[in-house]
From TrEMBL:
<feature type="domain" description="CLIC N-terminal">
    <location>
        <begin position="21"/>
        <end position="104"/>
    </location>
</feature>
<dbReference type="InterPro" id="IPR036249">
    <property type="entry name" value="Thioredoxin-like_sf"/>
</dbReference>
<keyword id="KW-1133">Transmembrane helix</keyword>
<dbReference type="Pfam" id="PF22441">
    <property type="entry name" value="CLIC-like_N"/>
</dbReference>
<keyword id="KW-0812">Transmembrane</keyword>
<dbReference type="GO" id="GO:0005254">
    <property type="term" value="F:chloride channel activity"/>
</dbReference>
<comment type="similarity">
    <text>Belongs to the chloride channel CLIC family.</text>
</comment>
<protein>
    <recommendedName>
        <fullName>CLIC N-terminal domain-containing protein</fullName>
    </recommendedName>
</protein>
<keyword id="KW-0472">Membrane</keyword>
<dbReference type="GO" id="GO:0005737">
    <property type="term" value="C:cytoplasm"/>
</dbReference>
<dbReference type="InterPro" id="IPR053823">
    <property type="entry name" value="CLIC_N"/>
</dbReference>
<dbReference type="GO" id="GO:0016324">
    <property type="term" value="C:apical plasma membrane"/>
</dbReference>
<dbReference type="InterPro" id="IPR036282">
    <property type="entry name" value="Glutathione-S-Trfase_C_sf"/>
</dbReference>
């Protein structure tokens, strides 16, 4: 297991009195090098949730990556067959995604404020990821248009709301859920299908620009190569382990955090 480098989310957020609780989040490591952050959506989502709380100094956050292809013996003995994300609070391990969310909301200092109630937004971002997976599988106009339609609905919501984030000018759990999925759409969609989010989705791009400027996202974001490799592995399974060339294993990690040059969003700030 390796401690992930998250400078603003580790020792730097301890208060002088030393009473800030330490939360450890175990996440999946890269399937390329077995150490850096992997491309697990749920791992990044909870990393972002907890990072925001660490920035507020309600907790001290330690993030540990585990290579699930070669998990260490102590991981197997402690957590059996349960894969990350795993949250450890005061020696107690919290397994399963729904239980982790509930624990952050009810037991982690400051967590309650992250988990706002908004049925409209919850419905809005639901099933977005399944449409990405369907597009990568089908590669047809129907699945592409279905994903585009969903993205346009999110863009329209952001236009009507006219706030920095989904529910207001403060980030919440829905943003930590949506943005990692948007990143997968950008990176995997471009790599496998040359799919790009249209530039006329101005409010969606503005939203992503705000997110790219936040440590909570950039510190938790996997490399492009890890996102690509994540879907290559899925396709290998569907193709009964037919080997695919993985050039990304030899590449220096890159991170797509740019905005199309033709979009001038500064006037929207």
């Amino acid at each position: 297991m390796a401690d992930e480098d998250a400078p603003h989310a580790n020792g730097n957020v301890h208060e002088e009195n030393g009473h800030v609780p330490e939360i450890e989040l175990i996440i999946k490591a890269s399937t390329i090098d077995g150490r850096r952050k992997g491309a697990c959506l749920f791992c990044q989502e909870y990393f972002m949730d907890l990072y925001l709380l660490a920035e507020l100094k309600t907790i001290s956050l330690k993030v540990t990556t585990v290579d699930m292809q070669k998990p260490p013996p102590d991981f197997r003995s402690n957590f059996d067959a349960n894969p990350p994300p795993i949250l450890i609070d005061n020696g107690m391990a919290v397994l399963e995604n729904e239980k982790i969310e509930r624990h952050i909301m009810k037991n982690v200092p400051g967590g309650y404020n992250l988990f706002v109630q908004d049925k409209e937004v919850a419905t809005l971002i639901e099933n977005l990821y399944s449409k990405l997976k369907l597009m990568l599988l089908k590669k047809d106009d129907v699945s592409i248009n279905s994903l585009l339609s969903h993205l346009r609905k999110i863009n329209l919501h952001l236009e009507k709301k006219n706030t920095r984030f989904l529910t207001g000018d403060t980030m919440c759990c829905f943003d930590c859920e949506l943005m990692p999925r948007l990143q997968h759409i950008r990176v995997a969609g471009k790599y496998f299908m040359d799919f790009q989010m249209p530039t006329d989705l101005r409010y969606l791009w503005r939203y992503m620009l705000h997110m790219y400027q936040l440590d909570a996202f950039t510190q938790s974001c996997p490399a492009d190569q890890d996102i690509v490799n994540h879907y290559k592995q899925q396709q290998n399974l569907m193709l009964q382990n037919v080997k695919m060339k993985k050039h990304e294993e030899l590449e220096t990690p890159t991170f797509t955090t740019s905005i199309p040059v033709e979009l001038d969003l500064q006037q929207d700030e």
